[in-house]
User: Fold these one by one.
Assistant:
Number 1:
Amino acid sequence: MPVSHARLRVLFAFFAIASLLLAGKLAYWQIAMRTDLLGPALGQVRSDLVMPATRGVIRDRNGAILATTVGLRSLYAIPSRIPDKAAAAKALGVLLGRDPAGIRARLESGAEWIFIHRRLPESAAAAVDKLGIPGLGFETEPKRMYPNDTVAAHVLGFVNDEGDGQYGVEGAHDAVLRGIPGRLVVERDSRDRAVPVGLRQALPSRDGADLTLTIDLVVQTAAERELRLAIEKEKATGGCIVVLDPKDGAILALASAPSFDPSAVAVTDLEALRDRAVSWTYEPGSTMKAFTIAAALEHGLVTPSTTYNDVGFAMIGGRRLNNALGRAWGPTTVTQILERSANAGAVFVGSKLGAERLHAALRSFGFGAPTGADVTGEQPGSVRPLAEWYPVDVGTAAFGQGLAATPLQLAAAYAALANGGILYRPYVVASRRDADGEHRTAPVAVRRVVSPETATLMRDMLTSTIDNGLAKNAQLSAFSVAGKTGTAQIPDKSGSYESDEYISSFAGFAPAKDPAFVAVVVLERPKSRLLGTLTATNAFKGLALDALRTARVQPDRKP
């Protein structure tokens, strides 16, 4: 029976509409849903790999490697592919020195993929490899290595398991050290094998910059040795040593105790991570007398031979301020104020300066503000605003009480006296080398704090302090030494001072007329109390011999 024209038209219309709907659906899938559908599909045939950048190497000023990165194998497991989890856990426990029960619990946890042990020594990785256990594999991960163990730990800081720099140079310069990771997109077949003629797109990584530090490994090692010996002798709770090049502010050594192992930070007490050289604020005591006298010399208020009568104490603002042990020295010159460390003499000089000029001098030498050094954790110390000073503060500040400084601030200020009167910003990164070449750090002269003439007078007076004063044990047989001891009480929470507990210190430089280095030694709560300064000067002396020998400085005195 022939089909009617009406039925043909209906059938044609049906097929036309169906075709239009199908075409519309295909267009929707190909255009509107392209990203949503293509991503998972491509994910089945492509692998997108991160190509990590190599972290930059850190060296000392002479090229010795302080920190570098090596690739270590990390052991992982795909538990579903391990036929005998108990046997595997037992074998791994023996080789890795781990509890087999703990490994087995992880293998039976139901996880699809787990790390068993990260960054294995190569000998251990090779031993695991020989077991031939199905379901075990290795992934190479970077491990930061410190060839000198704990030496310069606070200078360097460390790198955590996520590759982030923490503390020290590793933390302060993490952005330039870590580099920029790349990407590699590879097309793979159903068996997860790279297709030889398949898609391959690569964005290369950019390795991190190499840093050369101002640190001298020999001087750093000597500083840590002397600090350790001093703390052991005194049974002190902590301490630090700072060594600077006075000509430009370069940091030659920063030693701090307690310390830590940058390769094993997970087991470190958080207190040990604190770099006392830059974050420890304390009342510096008599080491500050040098700056009080320098300011008075600069203003023409005294000369090295200006004399006063020392009766063992001084009255200021209605308060009596005593010499150590209350000793009365009688007629005393300004030079002898340093030699004898006379508090009353410092009050005499401070009173001539007055509050405004003394406060300005302390601030000019850098106290009460961060030095701006390229390190982490630096504290500003404390010099109260002039408006908050009482009359007695002129006297106490003149001999280093009632204010707070860091060891690095004190070293930078003494460096200004040593170099002719210029305060430099301390720095630890000497240069950076990356793909664009080498970039050297330019020393920064912050300001002139005293004239060259005043600086020369101060060097002579501080030399006399060592030759004729209370710190003769800091003398070197073939080199002149300039310096000053300091003993400071420790403030308590009540606003007073702890009884019979002190901080002992020494600040000095050598040779006195043309200094190669400035060093500050600080000991917290030495057992010998007031005599802890003897141990601090001995530490300086031991350090000085290595520092001068390393710098090949010629003797300036006959032995």
Note: The radius of gyration is 34 Å.
Number 2:
Amino acid sequence: MKVSQIKYVRPEKDDIIAKINETKEKFLQAKSVEEFLEIHKQFKKESNAIETMASLASIRFTLNTADEFYAKEQDYYDEVMPEIIVALSDLNRCYVESPFRKQLEEHFPKVMFQILEMQIKASDPIILQEKVEENKVCTEYTRLMSEILVDYNGEQIPFPSMSKYFANEDREVRKSAIIAYAKAIEDRKDQLDEIFDRLVKIRTTMGKKLGFENFSDLGYLRMQRTCYSKKEIAQFRENVKKYLVPLASKLRAKVQKEMGWDVQHYWDNGVYTKVEPKPFGTVDQIFEHGRKMYHEMDKATGELFDKMYDAEAFDVISRKGKFGGGYCTCLPDYKLPFILANFNGSLGDIDVLTHEFGHAYAFARACEMDCMTEFAMETAEVHSMSMEFLAYPWIEGFFGDCTPEYKFNHIGGALCFIPYGTIVDYFQQQVYDNPDMTCQERNDFYNKIEKEFLPHMTTEGIPAFENGRRWQRQQHIYESPFYYIDYCLAQFTALQFLALSQRDWKGAFEKYKKFVHINSDLDFCDTLKACDLLSPFEEESFKEVVKAVEDILKI
């Protein structure tokens, strides 16, 4: 069945909560672990049906945020999901406090119980109203960013489509595009400030209601950090500054010299080679080669690509009113991932296709899991970022003679991303640890750390950005606090898969499959150990990864 043909029926809140409470009573009355597991099996089936409808509504809203029906459905979920999550949290206690806990741990992974305990604590009914408000304000931000049209060269261009100009071979084109893009943010700075300010206040209230000093500890609970804390992230941040920032600066200096720039401006940030590598062919031709790639990669990836393509589970054309980012979600009843992207003719089109398909591959695996929890975010991003590198043997089919330029851009971009991603997380940590900061103090702090982690670049002359507002273009800062460091941890791991694949692609892919298949049973750190991968929390690991990247890039 095609995604567009799936019938949407709103799951009513009262019915959902009644079913959750009914299941809870059955769990409490279960006389054996076998009876408990049978109840679990039935509830999993029912919860999958609910999740399928919620995902379908979200998909259709993001495909067209101006669609009145699905906009109202999004408002509905914003309103009711916090209450449903509270009820689910109460149900989850039946697992963690079960008299059959020991036997259940033989059936479910132990990490599931750790995550459930975190979810219970983070879903206390005392913060229900704040969670409703948080959802509504995040949707307000999504709508605002989806509605932005950038006035550029006499055209009104959707915000995400502007990125196709950012790596243009003509420096003046890049400059004018970045300035127009940044001006669109500057023109909405008051709205963006006001929305973020409300989110900080709402989240701080939640943290304090749960007995924390601020939101930070609650944020870590929500991100399901089971094997590391702020202490390890702070150490990671220091190692990024010590090892990766100098390497990124060395790479950017090499690019600057080859390009003959006196100063490296922000509009030079996306350029690594004199020739801009662009995928050739139409969208249909890109997907035709994508099908070939995934069939040759592995039987499972080929079958999944066919299933998604035939179900029209890819929507990649940018248009007015469409959600501006990219994502992969899942429709559990159909065991079907769905990918949204915004192709714009740049190399990023292939990056997003391979990245989101990595998520889809893991989602397909998750559909087979008999578990109450999903992959943690840093783990999920390893799935996607590593898939980008594992696609290299087929990249020539997308880029032809520009394949070497694509790889240099892609690897260089991956390296330089980690300092930027670290800035995003550091900024959030500072904001939520100090919730009374003014808008100007936030911008000043962002400017300060941007100069520390990206010393090779200047934002001088760019509206909004030169005043420390570049963070306002990053949707995760508004919608997903403390998510962004997961990308950094994952990129660090994905670079290891890159290095392994350069020596032995088949061996690297087998290790990748192992990573995807066992990490439902282990936390992130233990999964790394089980796969003989380096930990991002150890200084020696940074030395090895830096050496590997230097050798690959020949810098």
Note: The chain has a mean pLDDT of 95.
